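A.,

Following up on our hallway conversation. Structure tokens first:
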């Protein structure tokens, strides 16, 4: 969480900044296939958009919550709750007819917030090996909540469990989006190290471009007037939107 965006000027700048970073990432790692094979299908990733289908996962959510009433530290119940709250939120996303971008509804936002809350409680049980599949879902939940720092924390679990160019590239992206340039560079180095030798130069170039742009824009944001609100606050939209689909960077 970096900047307080109470002023419209700061908000517009951040949207441009991180929209640019997202576009660079998308071009380098999705459209051109750097870092692995990726098929970006918003309908598949986000339930196709449109319509309220929260009842689809009502039984699973109720079951997990009932188990937590009996044992608030039930590790599996917390993991299941995070998973099904995320899926419920995903199912309630809508889709902009013109841009085809997923639109976060009040219902989906509420479910994503419940998913990350359950995930935080799950991590506090200190699981020996945090569930990687659920961590990946939580990454997307944080993305839709415009929380780059949260997405980075969950993505680190994914990357460390499944080290690859794709998982570490995504980690670098989320860290850059959160203004964590140094840690982002470290993740980028891991991404390059995991790549095939023939791909390393291209991947390094893409990530170095992201790093420079992130550092430049972070510096520009820090120079903007705070609008009378001092201190740090949450970015309203640290991602700006990833290309025409508005989806998080997928991991191969």
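Then the amino acids I'd put at each of the 252 positions:
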């Amino acid at each position: 969480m970096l900047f307080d965006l109470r002023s419209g000027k700061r908000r517009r700048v951040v949207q441009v900044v991180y929209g640019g970073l997202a576009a660079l990432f998308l071009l380098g790692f999705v459209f051109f296939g750097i870092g692995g094979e990726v098929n970006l299908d918003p309908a598949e990733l986000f339930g196709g958009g449109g319509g309220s289908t929260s009842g689809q996962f009502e039984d699973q959510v109720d079951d997990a919550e009932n188990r937590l009433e009996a044992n608030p530290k039930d590790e599996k119940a917390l993991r299941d709750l995070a998973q099904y709250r995320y899926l419920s939120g995903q199912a309630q996303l809508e889709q902009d007819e013109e841009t085809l971008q997923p639109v976060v509804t009040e219902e989906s936002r509420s479910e994503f917030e419940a998913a990350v809350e359950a995930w935080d409680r799950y991590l506090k049980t200190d699981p020996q090996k945090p569930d990687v599949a659920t961590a990946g879902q939580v990454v997307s939940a944080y993305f839709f909540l415009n929380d780059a720092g949260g997405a980075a924390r969950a993505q680190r679990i994914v990357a460390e469990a499944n080290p690859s160019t794709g998982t570490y590239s995504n980690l670098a992206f989320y860290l850059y989006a959160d203004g964590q340039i140094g840690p982002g560079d470290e993740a980028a180095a891991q991404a390059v190290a995991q790549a095939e030798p023939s791909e390393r130069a291209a991947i390094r170039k893409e990530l170095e471009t992201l790093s420079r742009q992130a550092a430049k824009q972070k510096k520009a944001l820090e120079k903007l007037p705070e609008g009378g609100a001092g201190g740090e606050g949450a970015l309203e939209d640290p991602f700006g939107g990833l290309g025409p689909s508005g989806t998080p960077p997928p991991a191969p």
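The domain at 41-163 is CATH 1.25.40 (Serine Threonine Protein Phosphatase 5, Tetratricopeptide repeat). Curious whether your intuition agrees with the design.

B.
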